[in-house]
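I had to read the description of the data format several times before I understood it. In essence, backbone conformation is discretised, so a fold becomes a row of integers matching the chain in length. I therefore recommend that a typical entry be quoted early in the introduction. For illustration, here is how one protein appears when written out as sequence plus structure tokens.

***
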Amino acid sequence: MSAPTLNHLASGYDARQAYCLAKAAELAYGDRDEIEVTAGEWGFDRVRHHCSTFKPPFAISHTQAYTMASPTMVVTAFRGTEPLRLRDWFSDVTIPPWPGPAGTGLVHYGFAEALRAVIPSVVAAVQELRDGEQTVWFTGHSLGGALAMLAAAWLHFEEPRLSAHGVYTFGQPRTCNNVLVKAYDRALAGRTFRVVNNNDVVAQVPPGPLFRHVAALRYIDSSGKVRDSMPRVSKLLDRAKGMTADLFAPAADGVRDHLMKAYVAALEKNLT
């Protein structure tokens, strides 16, 4: 992997920061040795790993993440999971959502369980590694995006002195109800960016209106351009264009668009 140049003081949406944190989210799919070697190449000399089990509907699952620290920033990246596994979680509507951080709003049961399994380890690592004035960042793809957003919410509402400087998520599913969304958007406005690639199927689940997305969308259109806004009709037409790009497998477009490598490739193109 080429070494991304993370900016510990980046503010607002920054194309290079988005690409660099996408690379960090992609690295979360690697093994421990790969993570530690790559983090070292990027200038992060300390790494802590997080792995815990939890039981969402139907099967035992794992929450996996890592936290890396440099003299200027601390980054936690959460690993995602397969779209089919997330679909299984969302198919059981009999399990009620759980209270959000500090009792704020409601969170989908599966995401709440995944976060609860790992948040003590993440908070301990951030507290340990933030031994100066480092900025704190969260990132993740798929399930990892939901957990990055929820971890930032948890720190802000439960440990406000560790409030995140920035949060970038990729292919994040709808995670919580409108109460938590509004509180989150007020608290972390200008610091959270939810990047969605065209027809990414995971960004369209679980269904509303109970579960909502946080704001600050950055939409990657069918040509690979990152847009900060797009009229609804234009967006629908663009999604249709993306869906018909492969005439032999139009239904697979939502899965292809969800792949982390698709996000990294598109964000790298937008650096110029």
